[in-house]
């Protein structure tokens, strides 16, 4: 019904708009393909281009598709529709100042659609000169982007984060003992050359539109991925046996587990052993229910998502909080979920809630790091406790994933509230110890209040547990799809060949893998 | 930061040195000064979990000595005290004792807790733990403007958590997400 009403409104708008339309006029299009005449139209003070003329002149194709048209230009697919002010090119939306219209069987679109199309698909610019009535296609003048670099040392991993002031294309290649990140835009660098006292990174050197990271040894290998908002390229460096020779010269060899997307999930059943967690009024122990839920989750996730799932514990044993995230990091997990049951002194407390790491804590830590770095410039700081510094770095690691963790928590909470007939207590942030140090999106789920007799009874029932599991699995699936789309699995930062199968490093907790090994792919994350 | 590190290091050393003794540690530098004799009844905000599972301030009169550092213990004693007859029960667990309180020059309040509940291992969920931790943080920071953050210790030692959830390894700052905006009850 809504859709039908929208169509009526759109049609009315289009008709009303036509009252202000002038007759089509001709304009000249100059492009690398040559010169061609194209029809234009002025509608509601906006200049429209006849899509068929433009596409033909640029050597592309166009065909009707439902309420709109599919367009292929420069080998890239795109589309627009008469009821939508956004066109799409690949997975990028192109905003238009007006709705496309169809007049006498011909589609006219605001000319800005094609400007966006060429910029996205071909790094070309489209300019319009109203005096001469000439459209000109030319190589795009690339904007200068400013860069900053953070280097975070996390035990066996060095995270190198290159943050840019805007989005750009990039590639990463290996040159003997260095990685070179080449950007599609010129880069305003924070320095020309900088040395690091780091186990994996020796030096960073900026040149025009690239930065070279010189490594400390030939055995340092890397994996890379992209984060948005703000735009960042993250390079994880570690020492390891060099992978097989790349099939493409200059490609990064990626450890197999660091392939794109959500492939390895670590589930953490809260508490265990002498730490029972909360105890319900009828004696139900949190540690038992969290383990039961984790086992069910593991089976379901590995079956439905074909993910490798690792439990931090698969029996009634005590695992230190620090070790739980360490297990996730050790397995290079793509997602960390801690499962808990809640308890309150308020007997009527009920419902579900999901946590991710407190941003406030991380902000404060960032400030402390900056403060410490400033101090280090002038004098050594012997009083700075190493453990404290390590915490700061671990938190910064999780800060890299705060947006993703927030999205994950929102998605889980949304699915839980839909699936269970309980109070939705929302998404919250707190400095939960088990989330500190996770180098991947991480959340802690409180699936109900064991302190409430009614909820305690529900939480012990297999049927309710299945509902909870189905909701969380559905949420992980949704998050996986959104996340993988956002990090750009296909346009990966490198063209690395798949690495040989890697065996997860053993951990003291002997975590349990409940799914087949990670599938091998040739793309990078 | 370095100043805080030095101060905390000195404090932990003092606390550890006193571990073999019974009762609160008598630190010789920058601890709470001896309670002065003159006490003044002042209205203060004590933060408790309400029915909506958020912290809500209750305004009560508490006899406070002069000086910020000296106010910490009476504020916490009032927070952990049983509710006055006829008023809402207080959502703080029983079995928590105040071992010592300190105020560092950088605005970090040190609260050293003890008691059977924490020593035996508090078996509870994140809600109860979060509410207790932040009731302490908000009660202190709301009533003593000099306090910027609160470091909670257990039995004189840095503690990972009280019940397996909220990290106590660093000082905590107020978290508005856990607090209801308006006082629920004024006595």
Overview of the molecule:
Chain A is an alpha+beta fold. Chain A is 29% helix and 33% strand. Chain A has helices at residues 2-18, 51-57, 111-122, 286-304, 321-330, 359-378, 386-399, 402-419, 453-460, 462-487, and strands at residues 25-31, 34-43, 46-50, 61-65, 68-73, 76-81, 86-89, 92-95, 101-103, 106-110, 124-129, 134-139, 145-154, 157-164, 170-175, 178-183, 187-188, 193-195, 201-207, 210-215, 220-227, 232-239, 264-269, 308-311, 335-342, 352-357, 424-430, 442-449, 512-513. The two termini of chain A are 41 Å apart. The model of chain A is unreliable at 1-20, 241-258, 361-390 and 490-525 (pLDDT under 50). Chain B is globular, with a radius of gyration of 16 Å. Chain B starts with a helix and ends with a strand. Chain A binds chain B through residues 270-271, 274-279, 286, 321, 340-346, 348-349, 355, 358, 360-361, 364, 368, 371-372, 375, 381, 383-385, 388, 391, 425, 428-434, 436, 444, 446, 449-451, and chain B through 1-2, 5-6, 9, 49-51, 53, 91-93, 121, 123-128, 130-131, 160-161, 164-167, 169-170, 172-173, 175, 177-178.
- C-alpha geometry of chain A: flat
Unreliable segments of chain A (pLDDT under 50, ≥5 consecutive)?
1-20, 241-258, 361-390, 490-525
Please count the beta strands of chain B (DSSP E, at least 2 residues each): 7
* Gyration radius from CA atoms of chain A, angstroms: 27 Å
| Content of β-strand of chain B | 15-25%
**Which strands sit side by side, in order, in the main sheet of chain A?**
9-10-3-2-1-12-11
CATH topology of the largest domain in chain A: the name is: Aminopeptidase
Derived structural class of chain B = alpha/beta
What is the count of structural domains of chain A? 3
Roughly how much helix do the residues of chain B carry, as a percent range? 25-40%
